[in-house]
Amino acid sequence: MAGFLLRRLAFGVLAVLVAASLAFVLAWHAPGGPAVGLLGEQAAAGQVEEVSARLGLDRPAIEVWAGWMGRLLRGDLGTSWREQAPVASLILERLPLTLTLTAAAALVAAIAGTLVGVAASASAARWPVAALAAFHAVPSYIVAQGLVLVFALGLGVLPVQGVADARDPAMGGVALGVERLRYLALPVAALALHQLCFTALLVRASVQEQMHLPHVTAAMARGRSRGGARWHHALPNATLPVATLTAARIGGLVGGALVIETAFALPGLGRLAVSAAVARDHPVVICCVVAACALVWLANLLADAIAPLLDPRLREG
Amino acid sequence: MIPRRTLALLLALLCATPALGQQRGGTAVIAVAGDPGHLNPAISTAGPLHAVAGSLFNGLVALDEVGGPVPDLAESWQVAPDGLTATFRLRDGVRWHDGRPFTSEDVKVSFEQLLLRFHARARAGLAPAVAAIETPDSRTVVFRLHRPHPALLRQLDVTEAPILPAHLFAGTDPNTNPANQRPIGTGPFRFDSWRRDDQVVLTRNPDYFRAELPRLDRVVFRIIPDANTQVNALLAGEVDMLARVSPPDVARLRGRGVTFAEMRSAPGGSNCIMTLGFNLDRPATGTLALREAFALGLDRAQMLERVVFGQGRVAEAPIASGIGWAHAPGGLSGWRQDVAEANRRLDAAGLVRGADGVRVSLDIVHFPAFARWSEILRQQLAPLGVALRPRMMDPAALSQAVFTRRDFDLTLISYCNGTDPEIGVRRMVHSAAVGNVPFSNAAGYRNAEVDALFDRAASLQDDAARGEAYRAAQAVLARDLPYWWLVETDFTAAWRDDFADFAPWSGQVAERAWRRR
Amino acid sequence: MSRLLAALALVTLYLACLVFAPVGALPDLPRQPPLLPPSFAHPFGTDDLGRDQLAAALQGGRTSLLVAGLATGLALALGVMVGLAAGLARGVLDEVLMRGAEIVASLPTLLVAVLVAALFGGSMVALALVIGLTRWPLVARLVRIETMAVLGRTHLRAAFALGATPLHVARRHLLPHLAAPLGATAGIVFGGAILTEAALAFVGLGDPAVTSWGQMIASGFTLLGLGWWLWATPAAMIVLASSLVAAATLPGVSVARSLPVGQSP
């Protein structure tokens, strides 16, 4: 198992380098350079050329790319052009938030989605499916706006935006934890809803399928109630797909977090990527892709590692 | 029509506020749309940077609400009769936030090593005129000029020429100086902390040279990219002020305990005119009759009403009405809307309609944010047989397409005139400003007469005489039509009624603000 | 059967957008005041420039559905080719193709789409390409697994022994097995593409030159104080279309078979 994970890790590094090269090619060929991002919209004669020379953009692309890959392999992510800070620190600043957001949304979606799915599988009615399908199709920022209207502006119980009260950020211990929960509740809910409905739809279909399989029929023959059989015999076999599904859609959540970060003004990785791309801050653009890719990769690794715990059939290997 | 509070009315209200009601203390949270990136306002003209940095620094002068210079770091100044020297007497007892005294050396280093080399507008507007900066003593700065430069005083405020500390910047590379991340200024507020894309926190400078100011203890700039989120946050009380409110959002906020300030100026841009630029190097847009047809065919009143919901004015002349002494009232009134006449001129010019009714198809390059402008243009141009193909791109791509590659027929740009035509108008019409310079002479317009008039206006001392030259130049521009000036757009800021005296038209947005209890 | 009904409704919606939406620019209603709420004459109201919102919604539907269709088609074509090749060839080629698929699959579609749009400007074609080019691994894995499973069966070995060509085998024996899970995957890609387009427009990186549902919602959100129908009508269209897609493709398909079950070797 350890050898397997190690091999996967090594391959992951290769994948990340490929992704970084792809990002480099995109950034290099994008119209416009970093001058506008660095100087402001206006410039004086000669300034555009000075910026290019200072950043080494007048050298051949292959040379710049090779320099990049070399530095990435040594673990040096470079320095942001616009923010004049090491890219590694810029990304590390943002990573905890994006990680929390995606992980929390993935967990909420997996757990709540499973429960809703099993509950929905008990009914033969079509409306739960229709409702799930409809909610699954609402763009997340509309969900966000709706949640804000109800819980923040309507009931006044949760904040509209941000990660902390701008006026009174000094806080510690339990209070800080509670505060963080309050600030993240709506973003996590808005991000999770799509995935939650999707999981529920699939769990429902899967459980209904399982209910006709011999081991469930046998359990009911032994005197299990229909509900008991559903939860104790049909559900466990549906959990492995949910886990792999959740891992497979981490990428979707990392991307979706970008929208939620914008809607709730959260300082996450997605917003860093967008503002860097607009400013043509190539070092940051490339490393944001690297970070997102690594995140997805680790999530899959994690799923591979826990799959045997969920499915006895995978345990012997 | 949206009822408007004009600046004048607002000022009257502000002046009427009894001084005894003003209290000290409290925190104001101001929403801005983008992260500043870094906090060195002397090497960039980016809007989000200046929105925050204005409160940390000062200029030699400040500008009042109509763009006139008033004392800031300089307590007085004198321009020699020949216009070739300007002598500034600096305020005594000013200290940097780290306790060091402010001296004339700071001014010299700021200009020579930062502003004249890296600040786009200072480099383009001031550098060619300044021969030397001398510091006879620690409280005197003398600008020696190659030629008279009457716009000088309007180019020395905290947005156009912020003064940075020499003891941190002299002899360093300003593009990597750590003080860009932890700025030290002389301004009303000190830098406290900054979480990128989240918020910048400033605290009251207890040693500020205006002893009674600032009144607030803290100012927090919250970075909120989405306009809806900004409005929601203001309504929920999480944010106290929005630096920029779009016209439709004004409708949402009206009657919700919010004060509005509608103004022609904001840090980083004032007296802005939404302008259609014609690429004079292209055959179609190089044809005068086509440009005349635009001037005759477009309904700018409808643009004012439908695109900006009445927040602004139809552009009356090439130079904005906010620069009263240079503005030519009625300068474009020769072009009264007349679609039939527009069509006649196009016919006469040999631009005949094809089978589909289209005479000519033009591409129009602009920011995505101006999509509604180009849509209404498209609608209004259809009856003329002119078809538009919008190509929308961000500032980086647009500056390359328009100013480097010159690959466009029409471009839609919000040209901000600034407080003097030298700052924002020269760069769009002077032949010396054609070239690889972002947001300069987009049309590629070259006219010796206009060049001469602008050069003359730049060398005169007296605003009346300068205005004469600018008005003559505007008459030529109105005939040649390298651009078509659409609408002067206003900025709107909004704050909750429990605050007063924000100055959103200046860099020092919160210097005088205070909180009602 | 309700899946069929949903599919039928979807096709109808698609056709309605194709047939009834105005071609080219939207006709404006210059004599109408802008921002009319929904009425009999304008069931979806009019927008801020006085254009009929129903015509816009149909035109937006054509764009959104076309982008989604293109993206899905591309993902399916690439995925089926790669999956078949890997499943039939096995060995080194299989290994190389599947590792390649894995690398592509680790790129978050929306992030790539956003970066491409931020760097190059919003473009519907680019968006369809990005979605298609990042989502095909989903299809490839599925096709590969099914191919291997089917090839292992006795009756196929018999068919090969009797001289059947691989093409014949693929058509007669493979496709019937693949239809349902492929449909589900296509549905996921299709629905995801509609939402991706909408998300891009919200972040301000859509293609502002064309009318699309996402673009309409985004611009409706900037005019939130002026009329709810500006964003609500295109949003309703998105929900309708996406839930029809989900209803037509998702239920009844086994989770274990339709989804990328792990990247376990």
From TrEMBL, chain A:
<keyword id="KW-1133">Transmembrane helix</keyword>
<feature type="transmembrane region" description="Helical">
    <location>
        <begin position="99"/>
        <end position="120"/>
    </location>
</feature>
<dbReference type="InterPro" id="IPR045621">
    <property type="entry name" value="BPD_transp_1_N"/>
</dbReference>
<keyword id="KW-1003">Cell membrane</keyword>
<keyword id="KW-0813">Transport</keyword>
<dbReference type="InterPro" id="IPR000515">
    <property type="entry name" value="MetI-like"/>
</dbReference>
<dbReference type="Pfam" id="PF00528">
    <property type="entry name" value="BPD_transp_1"/>
</dbReference>
<keyword id="KW-0472">Membrane</keyword>
<feature type="transmembrane region" description="Helical">
    <location>
        <begin position="282"/>
        <end position="303"/>
    </location>
</feature>
<feature type="transmembrane region" description="Helical">
    <location>
        <begin position="141"/>
        <end position="164"/>
    </location>
</feature>
<comment type="similarity">
    <text>Belongs to the binding-protein-dependent transport system permease family.</text>
</comment>
<dbReference type="Pfam" id="PF19300">
    <property type="entry name" value="BPD_transp_1_N"/>
</dbReference>
<feature type="domain" description="ABC transmembrane type-1">
    <location>
        <begin position="95"/>
        <end position="307"/>
    </location>
</feature>
<protein>
    <submittedName>
        <fullName>ABC transporter permease</fullName>
    </submittedName>
</protein>
<dbReference type="InterPro" id="IPR035906">
    <property type="entry name" value="MetI-like_sf"/>
</dbReference>
From TrEMBL, chain B:
<keyword id="KW-0732">Signal</keyword>
<feature type="signal peptide">
    <location>
        <begin position="1"/>
        <end position="21"/>
    </location>
</feature>
<protein>
    <submittedName>
        <fullName>Solute-binding transporter (Periplasmic)</fullName>
    </submittedName>
</protein>
<dbReference type="InterPro" id="IPR039424">
    <property type="entry name" value="SBP_5"/>
</dbReference>
<feature type="domain" description="Solute-binding protein family 5">
    <location>
        <begin position="69"/>
        <end position="430"/>
    </location>
</feature>
<keyword id="KW-0813">Transport</keyword>
<dbReference type="InterPro" id="IPR000914">
    <property type="entry name" value="SBP_5_dom"/>
</dbReference>
<comment type="similarity">
    <text>Belongs to the bacterial solute-binding protein 5 family.</text>
</comment>
<dbReference type="InterPro" id="IPR030678">
    <property type="entry name" value="Peptide/Ni-bd"/>
</dbReference>
<dbReference type="Pfam" id="PF00496">
    <property type="entry name" value="SBP_bac_5"/>
</dbReference>
<feature type="region of interest" description="Disordered">
    <location>
        <begin position="169"/>
        <end position="188"/>
    </location>
</feature>
TrEMBL record, chain C:
<feature type="transmembrane region" description="Helical">
    <location>
        <begin position="226"/>
        <end position="250"/>
    </location>
</feature>
<keyword id="KW-0571">Peptide transport</keyword>
<keyword id="KW-0653">Protein transport</keyword>
<feature type="transmembrane region" description="Helical">
    <location>
        <begin position="65"/>
        <end position="89"/>
    </location>
</feature>
<keyword id="KW-0812">Transmembrane</keyword>
<keyword id="KW-0472">Membrane</keyword>
<dbReference type="Pfam" id="PF00528">
    <property type="entry name" value="BPD_transp_1"/>
</dbReference>
<dbReference type="InterPro" id="IPR000515">
    <property type="entry name" value="MetI-like"/>
</dbReference>
<dbReference type="InterPro" id="IPR035906">
    <property type="entry name" value="MetI-like_sf"/>
</dbReference>
<protein>
    <recommendedName>
        <fullName>ABC transmembrane type-1 domain-containing protein</fullName>
    </recommendedName>
</protein>
<keyword id="KW-0813">Transport</keyword>
<feature type="domain" description="ABC transmembrane type-1">
    <location>
        <begin position="61"/>
        <end position="250"/>
    </location>
</feature>
<comment type="similarity">
    <text>Belongs to the binding-protein-dependent transport system permease family.</text>
</comment>
<keyword id="KW-1133">Transmembrane helix</keyword>
<feature type="transmembrane region" description="Helical">
    <location>
        <begin position="110"/>
        <end position="134"/>
    </location>
</feature>
